[in-house]
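Worked example 3 (structure in, sequence out).
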């Protein structure tokens, strides 16, 4: 061969799509192809395949495998002369290495691709049964199955059949194969066959007439005794037949296996009997079946065995399927199952998962099945087991928007085509998009993408998954808006009853009210209504994901009514990715955040992700600066404090909204995994905000009554949770008031001024208004409620020197200056440090006294009727247990361990662990219990809008607390069990460390 000719051939091969032109030249020069190597028809046909290199290699192997020169020449002659065979054979060889292997082992099977009669274009079960009829054993059945599969693949890769027709043919071939396998099993055990009636019910994709090339074939077996036979013996016979049939299909022989037959969808799964009678099936589904089992029955179809018994099964169970949507938690169960599927995908594979990943095939299937179950109760046209047929019926009935249905149909077909071609290559069960460049190139070319196969494939794949992801949730809700908006005359819409059914199924307790809200928001031809119609399908899905969808929708209507005329509101929700979902989460998570928002709806701007918004908590210095400036601009103290309270309300909303979003998670932001970080963020933000509010209130009161300077130095000392930076949403501000007369000011005048400041601050912070009150609690002062409200530093010093009790030293562990004269605050801390960190630690008498006080508090202060095990503050293993244990360690060892000299519980606990005062496991147990109890208190306040130390009793409120804590619908019991378990472990540690048990 001359170099010039070689170069010319090499170039032609590259132009025809070969990637290894040198290897292709060598194959074309082989003896087998010598007669046709220069035939342009062959080269053109090879270049049209998905992988010309693979096709040429497979063709050479097939020619080599022919029994002799005559057979080889017959194949070559037919290949060049008959375009249908050429396209079919080379198309298969270029798409499937596995079928090329089959042809190399069975070199005459190419002949099944020669016939091109109309009846061969769309074969059904009968044609496939004829193709398998001569198989007398499992090995022969495998060979015959692959021969039939060869013809299906040929029609597929040549475009004779579309993806839906190919999936239907694969299901029909599976049906014929199950029948042939059962016949072999019956022939092997005729006495078993005579003793029973056995029906094979196809489930899943086989039952839905939409099978893949390689997939488990899901089945359920129904058995009955033959006339005159004993039922127990008949069921044993049926079980042996069913087991043998499964082995025939599933076991690997010299010809490989066909596919696994999976019977795990049967009642009780793999723990239940393989074969049941019809009455046993009915009893199970009537009493025990879960929602997903009814969803699975959507695709049930008799395929083999006793046809009458199979039909009886479907007729008996069908009515139950269409009542499944009336079950409690129906939609929540379905959606939870979908979430669980996604969560179980390995992180490294989730972006390559065609079937189970976000925007994948399962999203379409789940959405369609959910709508079928909701509306199929009253509309029999929806009762199809085939996804695309059901989607078309949903669109025709107005249950799905027509445009949405078309987009989903296109996306589903493309994704299924990808899945088919990926599996066809090796005939292996996989749903992962390959990573190898050559595999991606073959896949892209097989789908008709020839210019830049890899680039075009990835672009189209991502585009289609994006469409599915976007439409998946909207699918449920957009028709609801069409039903109430009534914009396009003549369009098929949901009836009022169908809309009510759907809302009810999606968790709305008052669907009539929900429809009224939707009508008010979405009706009309204004730009505002048009934007609402775009937003609401997504928002409704987010509301439905909460414990109280009705409240979410009602609150959204209220906010929209208040802000509807402001130009930025709907633009924010439409254009800023995070804002709409953040708002939906906040409005449906309970009462506190919506109440704060309703008092000043413009705070919605905080939910955006632009420069002007953001939910990150602001630091204390920044808050103080804003509040002091606002108070300074006011004409009087009342106006100044009103401004301070307005800032506090806005920042409380910011903190609550961030907490909700972090706890619920969003499409773009996962749930915060570190529960302790959530607690610290809320505690720090609310404590900083309270301190800044008090500082601003003090400034306003002093300025209004005394000008720039109060006659006495004045400082507020935070105590309890306030001093510990652990305030919750409903916490009072525990403080001590300290003053020191300025030089030349009489003590009486100074005391009067300090008392007036305190009285006016408390009054102004509690005036009824749109802003939540801030209650100041000074009960931790010396002598409690009996002692003076305000004392001088010298008075504190005298009291603590003479009268201080051990509980006061314990309380002072949390003391920290929060507002007022910094120097005076520092000197107060210097005064109390020796009390709270006594040299050489506490004596044994003091330790016994603390233990006695704790025991008395446990017995006397628990509210009557409260369940001690669920009381977050005083219950065993709750906040009090953990805090008193940590504080006892501080009192005993703080003098020697600097790390223990902190007002914060978790920091002190970590320091105690670092100092080996308790073990790592013990510290972790106490920390977990304290964080959980604090989270529960925060959740109760967020959900109910008022503080509480126990779990709510009302079911929706309890579910909302569970949702905040990460528990799905129907898992409130699991939440309570987990709380009891966590606090029980903590109490055991407390018994050992605190009580010395």
């Amino acid at each position: 061969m001359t170099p010039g000719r070689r170069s010319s051939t090499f170039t032609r091969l590259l132009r025809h799509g070969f990637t290894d032109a040198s290897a292709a030249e060598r194959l074309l020069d082989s003896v087998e192809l010598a007669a046709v190597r220069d035939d342009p028809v062959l080269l053109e046909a090879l270049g049209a395949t998905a992988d010309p290199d693979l096709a040429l290699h497979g063709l050479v192997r097939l020619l080599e495998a022919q029994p002799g020169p005559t057979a080889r020449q017959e194949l070559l002659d037919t290949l060049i002369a008959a375009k249908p065979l050429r396209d079919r054979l080379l198309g298969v060889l270029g798409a499937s290495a596995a079928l090329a292997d089959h042809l190399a082992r069975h070199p005459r099977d190419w002949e099944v691709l020669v016939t091109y009669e109309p009846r061969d274009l769309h074969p059904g079960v009968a044609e496939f049964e004829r193709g398998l009829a001569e198989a007398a054993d499992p090995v022969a059945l495998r060979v015959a199955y692959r021969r039939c599969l060869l013809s299906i693949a040929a029609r597929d890769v040549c475009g004779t059949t579309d993806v839906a027709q190919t999936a239907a043919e694969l299901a029909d071939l599976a049906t014929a194969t199950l029948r042939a396998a059962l016949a072999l099993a019956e022939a092997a055990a005729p006495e078993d066959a005579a003793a029973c009636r056995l029906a094979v019910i196809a489930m899943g994709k086989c039952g839905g007439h939409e099978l893949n090339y390689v997939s488990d074939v899901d089945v359920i077996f129904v058995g009955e005794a033959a006339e005159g036979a004993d039922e127990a013996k008949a069921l044993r016979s049926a079980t042996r037949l069913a087991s043998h049939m499964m082995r025939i299909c599933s076991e690997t022989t010299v010809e490989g296996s066909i596919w696994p037959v999976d019977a795990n969808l049967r009642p009780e799964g793999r723990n239940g009997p393989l074969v049941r009678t019809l009455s046993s099936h009915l009893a199970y589904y009537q009493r025990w079946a879960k929602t997903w089992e009814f969803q699975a029955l959507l695709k049930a179809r008799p395929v083999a065995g006793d046809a009458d018994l199979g039909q009886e099964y479907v007729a008996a169970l069908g009515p139950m399927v269409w009542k499944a949507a009336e079950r409690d938690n129906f939609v929540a169960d379905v959606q939870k199952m979908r979430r669980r599927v996604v969560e179980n995908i390995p992180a490294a594979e989730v972006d390559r998962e065609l079937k189970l990943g976000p925007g994948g095939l399962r999203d379409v299937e789940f959405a369609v099945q959910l709508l079928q179950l909701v509306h199929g109760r009253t509309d029999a046209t929806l009762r199809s087991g085939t996804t695309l047929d059901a989607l078309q019926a949903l669109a025709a009935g107005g249950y799905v928007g027509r445009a949405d249905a078309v987009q989903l149909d296109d996306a589903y077909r493309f994704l299924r085509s990808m899945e088919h071609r990926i599996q066809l290559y090796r005939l292996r069960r996989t749903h992962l998009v390959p990573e190898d460049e050559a595999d991606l190139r073959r896949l892209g070319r097989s789908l008709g993408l020839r210019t830049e196969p890899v680039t075009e494939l990835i672009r189209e794949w991502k585009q289609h998954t994006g469409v599915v992801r976007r439409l998946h949730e909207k699918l449920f809700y957009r028709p609801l808006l069409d039903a109430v908006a009534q914009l396009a005359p003549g369009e098929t819409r949901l009836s009022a009853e169908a809309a009510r059914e759907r809302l009810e199924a999606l968790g709305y307790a008052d669907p009539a009210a929900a429809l009224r809200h939707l009508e008010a928001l979405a009706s009309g031809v204004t730009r505002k209504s048009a934007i609402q119609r775009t937003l609401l399908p997504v928002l409704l899905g987010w509301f439905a994901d909460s414990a109280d969808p009705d409240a979410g929708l009602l609150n959204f209507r209220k906010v929209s009514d208040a802000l509807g005329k402001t130009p930025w509101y709907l633009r924010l929700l439409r254009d800023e990715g995070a804002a709409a979902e953040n708002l939906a989460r906040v409005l449906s998570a309970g009462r506190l955040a919506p109440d704060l928002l309703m008092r000043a709806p413009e705070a919605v701007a905080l939910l955006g992700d632009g420069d002007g918004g953001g939910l990150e908590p602001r630091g204390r210095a920044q808050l103080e600066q804003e509040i002091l400036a606002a108070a300074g601009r006011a004409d009087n103290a009342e106006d100044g404090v009103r401004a301070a309270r307005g800032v506090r309300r806005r920042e409380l909303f910011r903190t609550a909204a961030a907490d909700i979003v972090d706890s619920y998670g969003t499409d773009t932001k996962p749930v915060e995994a570190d529960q302790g970080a959530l607690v610290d963020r809320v505690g720090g933000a609310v404590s900083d905000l309270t301190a800044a509010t008090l500082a601003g209130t003090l400034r306003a009161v002093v300025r209004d009554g005394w000008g720039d300077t109060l006659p006495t130095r004045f400082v507020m000392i935070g105590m309890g949770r306030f001093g510990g930076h652990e305030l919750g949403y409903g916490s009072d501000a525990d403080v001590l008031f300290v003053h020191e007369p300025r030089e030349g000011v009489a003590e009486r005048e100074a005391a009067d001024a300090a008392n007036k400041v305190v009285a006016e601050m408390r009054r102004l912070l509690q005036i009824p208004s749109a802003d939540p009150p801030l209650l100041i609690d000074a009960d931790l002062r010396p002598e409690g409620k009996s002692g003076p409200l305000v004392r001088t530093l010298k008075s504190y010093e005298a009291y603590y020197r003479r009268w201080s009790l051990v509980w006061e030293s314990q309380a002072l562990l949390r003391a920290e200056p929060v507002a007022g004269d910094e120097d005076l605050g520092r000197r107060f801390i210097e005064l109390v440090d020796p009390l709270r960190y006594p040299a050489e630690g506490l004596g044994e008498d003091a330790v016994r006294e603390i233990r006695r006080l704790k025991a008395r508090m446990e017995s006397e202060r628990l509210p009557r009727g409260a369940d001690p095990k669920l009381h977050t503050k005083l219950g065993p293993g709750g906040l009090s247990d953990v805090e008193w244990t940590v504080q006892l360690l501080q009192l005993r060892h703080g003098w020697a361990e600097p790390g223990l000299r902190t007002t914060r519980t978790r920091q002190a606990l970590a320091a105690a662990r670092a100092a080996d005062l308790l073990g790592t496991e013990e510290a972790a147990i106490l920390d977990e219990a304290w964080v959980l109890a604090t989270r529960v208190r925060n959740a109760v306040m967020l959900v109910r809008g008022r503080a509480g130390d126990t779990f709510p009793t009302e079911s929706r409120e309890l579910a909302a607390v569970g949702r905040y804590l990460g528990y799905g619908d129907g898992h409130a019991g699991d939440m309570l069990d987990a709380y009891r378990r966590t606090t029980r472990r903590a109490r055991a540690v407390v018994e050992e460390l605190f009580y010395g048990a």
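Notes: Residues 250 and 260 are 4 Å apart (CA to CA). Residues 1-5 have pLDDT under 50 and may be disordered.
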